[in-house]
Amino acid sequence: MNSLRPETYDSLTGLRFVLSIWIAVFHLGDMYDPQGFGAWAIMRAGAARVDVFFVLSGFVLTHIYWARSKASFQYRNFLRARFARLYPLHLLALGLLCGLVVAAHVVGQGAQTRHFTLTGLIANLALLQAWAIPGANVWNFPAWTISAEFFGYLIFPLLLIPAVRLRSRPWVFVCLSLGVVLTIDLLFRQFLGRTLTRTTVDLGILRGASVMWVGVAARVLFERLHLTSLQALVVIVFGAAIALGGAMMALPTAVVALGGAMLVIGLAARDITRQASAYATGLDHPAMVKLGGWSYAIFILHVPIFMAMENVAKILGTNLPINPVTVLIMVSVLIGLAAVAHIWVEEPARKWLRGPTASV
């Protein structure tokens, strides 16, 4: 193992913030101005946001639990750590939505909440939103991704098996993982009549786990690469272009995953060489790293927070206009509340569930 590999990659933390804000802004337009702001061309690159997140997750987890770990993999401790990472804020988001549903009934608007079913709520509580359960997508609909990701956690030891067996042939592993994503995509097109990119609550677990596997393979390949700063920057640019272009042109998910893998590898390599480089990305800036620490709170809480702000606007007797000013205000409020949730809920709950020495 290369001794220069750090324990964490700040640029990847900054990338998490960019992706989470991008997702939040997209849903803001999609929820309240789908024919205007939500229809902008850049908003159609939705798959790039989600699938790059899955690749990033697979890369980071492999780095933590396989590449730099000197201890044997402890499956029970791994799942406990991942549960502690996801569940407290997920539960907070559901609690906020339950409060909004109750408030709607109190003010006589209960008919508007008829799709918020008990079955869907139970599915969310059990992290089964991406298992094709009716009504599960209504409650905090972006959270299907954490259901898909948790499925990836459940099978993570299986995803690591090729990491060991193909460590000396990482390009084979990368091609294998991309081939699996492409095969699942083709099977979905053939038998379910939809692409993998359009799969969310209906068996999104297969999308999440397979794309995470590309991230695992990317970390194994990264172990063999020794990119210069300029080479890393080129990989970053091409990776971002492939991921965004693939999403906007509705190419197979494997293309987006490939771009995401290149982007993550390039950013990680850039972090290693940043001390002697003039090619900065800005994602490793301390402010971006701090914001990246709040990224999960931003992602999981943005829908209930936006819904609460919409309801406040209605109480004040106005509809919520979507324009650059209101978007900036709403995103700023979201970031502020996400910071509070991270400090007062996410971090204390994670430490309580994992123990005071846990940091991942």
Automatic annotation (TrEMBL):
The keyword Ligase does not apply. GO terms for cellular component: membrane. This is Acyltransferase 3 domain-containing protein. Keywords: Membrane, Transmembrane, Transmembrane helix. Pfam families: Acyl_transf_3. The chain crosses the membrane at residues 12-29, 50-67, 87-108, 144-164, 171-192, 204-222, 229-248, 254-273, 294-313, 325-345. GO terms for biological process: polysaccharide biosynthetic process. Residues 10-337 form the Acyltransferase domain. PANTHER family: ACETYLTRANSFERASE, BLR2367 PROTEIN. GO terms for molecular function: acyltransferase activity, transferring groups other than amino-acyl groups. InterPro entries: Acyl_transf_3_dom (IPR002656), Acyltransferase_3 (IPR050879).
